[in-house]
Design goal:
By secondary structure, the protein is an alpha+beta fold. The protein has one domain: Dimeric alpha+beta barrel (Alpha-Beta Plaits, 2-Layer Sandwich), CATH 3.30.70. It is about 35% helix and about 30% strand. The chain contains five helices and four strands, in the order βααββααβα. It has a four-stranded antiparallel sheet, covered by helices on one side. The protein starts with a strand and ends with a helix.
């Protein structure tokens, strides 16, 4: 199966600063979806960051994409990328893999 990348964003600046750049972050996310790189994304609970499920040909490709996130460029969040290969998946998810 395809390698999936779980990107875990952790805010390192106050939420007010995050919110001030949310439109640019969402525009970047939308482009990632349009390009087929992102599978799902959302806020962590509690709101300490976010999670993005991505796919790509390599870890380096996904790292480069995530480096373009306004939150990364502006030093508002850190990101940890965890690659994994699913050995089992729900039927609806298999089409994505």
């Amino acid at each position: 199966m395809t390698t999936i990348y779980v990107a875990i964003l952790t805010y390192v600046r106050p939420v007010e600063e995050i919110d001030a750049h949310m439109q640019a972050h969402v525009a970047w996310l939308r482009k990632g979806y349009e390009d087929g790189a992102f599978l799902a994304s959302g806020r962590r609970v509690p709101r300490t960051g976010g999670v993005i499920l991505a796919k790509g040909d390599s870890l380096e490709e996904v790292e480069a994409l995530l480096n373009e996130d306004p939150f990364q460029r502006l030093g508002l969040a850190t990101v940890e990328i965890i690659p994994f290969q699913a050995s089992m998946a729900a039927e609806a998810f298999k089409a994505i893999l």
